[in-house]
Amino acid sequence: MFDILDKAVEVGRDLGATYVELRGETGFVEYIQMDDLRVNALTQRIERGVAIRVLMDGAWGFVSTGNMDALDQAVRDAFMMARAAAKTRSDQIRLAETKPHEDTIDIKVKRDPRQVPIEEKIKYMQDITKVVQGFDRRMVAVTVKVRTASGTKYVVTSEGTRIQSRDLLVWVYPWVTAKEGARLSAARYEDASTHEGWEYMERVATPEAIGLAAAKRAKLQLEGVQAKAGSFPCILGPRVIGVLAHEALGHLSEADLTTNSAFNGKLNQVVASEGVYMTDDGTIPGGLGTAKYDDEGTSSTRVAIIKDSVLTELMTNREYAAKTGLRPTGNARAESYLYPPIIRMRNTFFERGDAEPDEMFEGIDFGYYCADFRGGQAQTNASFQVGLQEVYEIVNGKLGRPVTDLSISGIATDSLMKIEMISKKEFPFELGRCGKGQEAFVASGGPDIRFAGGGITFGGKT
């Protein structure tokens, strides 16, 4: 593959391009969906293709192709696209300087998902379904989705970067519906790894662990009391505070979105309560969003987005690093060779504080502990709304009854100022996907964080 990509890069150089980048991919991708023990979707495909980006006259040209015998022409097409686009631009795109890398990164797996028999994967999904069904007779519908991928990625640039890396994914997602009388509830769970093979499903994301996680949440929703509407003191647990870090704040910190977001012009200003730290880190060993290099070949780094209440850094790619004068942070990611790389989060989280776990509940006469979410969305003005699937009342400083049909909303930049306490306890990451025109696998999280009344608005029964 390197020989083919090297020759195509030379074509771009000979044309006089400012910069040429080719990303090649070869691999296996599989998707299975099971509804109530019946397989309703099963697809496998072999992917082989190249993404070509050419910078010329201050504009990008992008072409993706699966025809490996026509790369020279694809580079010429990208070159001509860039020249045509440049005539419409008043400002020229520049790239921040980075060190070229030559490297090979391998991931040693015990069980390559490509080599696992399809019968074994189907049995894994059947076992999850049976765990859910056996948990409670009121579990009336179970959908299980599994995706796996195994392949190799290549990045070659006109600056001398030549990187080969392993592309790996195992992912599972059950959706459970429960019913009692006329009352319905639903819950989901998600787990994945980009650094282990099928052994991750045998060691961590076992049928018992995944099935019980989803079933317990559906049961809680079915049996929970109605929520009260209004604003109350609350504690957001690791999985919910991770959504706030990612959806409501992380996207504001992606440099290509910051200009039109609530963080515009706020660099080096106080944006949160004292002692709040928020980070995006592409270097955490085994992290779902971790990679040694991004899809431009830039080394992954740790980005201190908020440091002791101050907005300190933004996530960048090379283009926006040059545009903003900030450093390249290694946040350029592409879903596949069909897309150009854009600025994406990796592992985004709030750092631990200094509060003891027992302190977090002290003094709350009535409030909520929010443990898990079903889905969420946010806008660049920092407004957010998150549907919850595991919530408990806090009464007189103690955890109380489970709550159903509850959602939270607010303005994240205002909520940050209402943070009262941050737990020192270690936390798990929520593992999932982010959509920003293309999909990326990401992790998010944080310790338990307590908000004063007025920081979060609860939607429920008045």
What does this structure look like?
21% of the residues lie in helices and 40% in strands. The protein has two domains: 2-223, PmbA/TldD superfamily (PmbA/TldD fold, 2-Layer Sandwich), CATH 3.30.2290; 226-459, no CATH class. The chain is globular and about 75 Å long. The mean pLDDT is 97. Helix 1 packs parallel to helix 2 (71-86) and helix 3 packs parallel to helix 5 (207-223). It is an alpha+beta fold and 462 residues long.
Beta-strand portion reads 35-45%
Rg (CA only): 24 Å
Q: How many distinct folded domains?
A: 2
Terminal-residue CA separation: 63 Å
* Spatial shape: globular
Unreliable spans are none
Total count of helical runs of at least 4 residues: 9
Offer a quick outline of the entry.
The protein is of the alpha+beta class. 21% of the residues lie in helices and 40% in strands.
Can you lay out the helices and strands and say which pair or pack?
Blueprint: H1 2-15, E1 19-35, E2 38-56, E3 59-65, H2 71-86, E4 102-105, H3 118-135, E5 139-157, E6 162-180, E7 183-188, E8 191-193, H4 199-203, H5 207-223, E9 225-226, E10 230-231, E11 234-236, H6 238-250, H7 255-258, E12 278-281, E13 302-307, E14 310-311, H8 318-324, E15 332-333, E16 342-343, E17 347-350, E18 366-378, E19 383-395, E20 398-404, E21 407-411, H9 412-415, E22 419-422, E23 429-435, E24 439-445, E25 449-451, E26 457-459
Parallel strand pairs: 4-6, 9-20, 11-18, 17-24
Antiparallel strand pairs: 1-2, 1-5, 2-3, 5-6, 6-7, 6-8, 10-26, 11-25, 12-13, 12-17, 13-14, 15-16, 18-19, 19-20, 19-21, 21-26, 22-25, 23-24
Helix pairs in contact: 1-2, 3-5
